[in-house]
Automatic annotation (TrEMBL):
GO terms for biological process: L-amino acid transport. One of its GO terms (molecular function) is ATP hydrolysis activity. Keywords: Amino-acid transport, ATP-binding, Cell membrane, Membrane, Nucleotide-binding, Transport. This is ABC transporter ATP-binding protein. Residues 9-242 form the ABC transporter domain. It comes from Pseudacidovorax intermedius. The keyword Membrane applies. Pfam families: ABC_tran. InterPro entries: AAA+_ATPase, ABC_transporter-like_ATP-bd, ABC_transporter-like_CS, BCAA_Transport_ATP-bd_LivF, P-loop_NTPase. Belongs to the ABC transporter superfamily.
Length: 244
C-alpha cells in the first residue's frame, strides 16, 4: 500500500478462538480506503472467520481491529454496523417468507415504510440489480440463487456504507450473473465504497481486485497488489495450488 493510500480497516496480530479451536493465529490485514481488497486462500484457511471477527460475531482473543483509526475489537455487532460497515455472509441471510420489498425495508433502518426509503438510492440499486425491482413484491424465498445474492448485496447498500464486507458473492452463480455482479461492484467502488471480498472465483478476483491478501492456516501469508499477484503464476501455485 502506498503512503498516499489511507487504511480504512486494519487487523494487527488478531487471534480468534471458536470453542476449543484456535482458528486465527495472528492475522495482519490492511484494507485501503476506496479500494477493493480480495481475501483469497484455500478452504479452511480462516477467511470467513476473519470477516466474522471484524463484525464482532466472533470475539478477538488477542490483537487489534481498527476501523477509521478507532478500535472496534469486541464491540457489539450492531455498533460495528452503525459505524458504516455492512456484511453479506455466504449464507446471504435472506428472510425467505418476506417479500423483496420487506427484506429491503428491514435493512433500511431509517425507514418505517417503503415510501420512506431513499428514492434516488433505490433507483440506483434497481439499475445495478434490475431483478430486485422486477421481483419487488415477490417472496424472497422464490428467487433464484443469483437473484438472492443480488438482494443480499442490495440490502447491504440500501443505506450509505463506508465498507462492504462480502463472503463469496459468486458461489454457485452462472457466468452471466457473475459478470453482472462484477459490473455492480466496480460501480460501487467507483462511488467511493471500500470493499473487502472473500472469493474463490479467480476471474472475479482478477477483474475487480486492487489489492490482495492470501490466507493459509489462520494467517495472512501474502499481501500486495492484485496486478503483480496475477502476473506471478509461481506465487499463485505455491499459495493457492492453482494459477490464475
Amino acid at each position: 500500500m502506498s503512503t498516499t493510500t489511507q487504511a480504512l480497516l486494519t487487523l494487527d496480530g488478531v487471534h480468534t478462538h471458536i470453542g476449543a479451536y484456535h482458528i486465527l493465529h495472528g492475522v495482519d490485514l490492511v484494507v485501503p480506503k476506496g479500494q477493493l481488497t480480495m481475501l483469497l486462500g484455500r478452504n479452511g484457511a480462516g477467511k470467513t472467520t476473519t470477516l466474522r471477527t471484524v463484525m464482532g460475531l466472533w470475539k478477538v482473543a488477542q490483537g487489534r481491529v481498527q476501523f477509521g483509526g478507532k478500535s472496534i475489537a469486541n464491540l457489539p455487532t450492531p455498533q460495528i454496523a452503525d459505524l458504516g460497515i455492512a456484511y453479506v455472509p455466504e449464507t446471504m441471510g435472506i428472510f425467505a417468507d418476506l417479500t423483496v420489498k420487506e427484506n429491503m425495508l428491514l435493512a433500511a433502518r431509517g425507514a418505517r415504510r417503503a415510501q420512506d426509503m431513499d428514492e434516488a438510492r433505490l433507483k440506483w440499486i434497481f439499475r445495478l440489480f434490475p431483478a430486485v425491482e422486477k421481483f419487488w413484491n415477490h417472496p424472497a424465498g422464490k428467487l433464484s440463487g443469483g437473484q438472492k445474492q443480488m438482494l443480499a448485496v442490495s440490502r447491504a447498500i440500501v443505506e450509505p456504507r463506508e465498507l462492504l464486507i462480502i463472503d463469496e458473492p459468486s458461489k454457485g452463480l452462472a457466468p452471466a450473473i457473475i459478470n453482472n455482479m462484477i459490473d455492480a461492484f466496480a460501480e460501487l467502488k467507483a462511488s467511493g465504497v471500500t470493499i473487502l471480498l472473500v472469493e474463490q472465483n479467480i476471474h472475479f478476483a482478477q477483474r475487480l481486485g486492487d489489492t490482495v491478501a492470501v490466507m493459509d492456516n489462520g494467517r495472512v501469508v501474502h499481501a500486495g497488489g492484485m496486478a503483480e499477484f496475477s502476473a506471478d503464476t509461481q506465487l499463485q501455485q505455491r499459495l493457492l495450488g492453482l494459477a490464475l
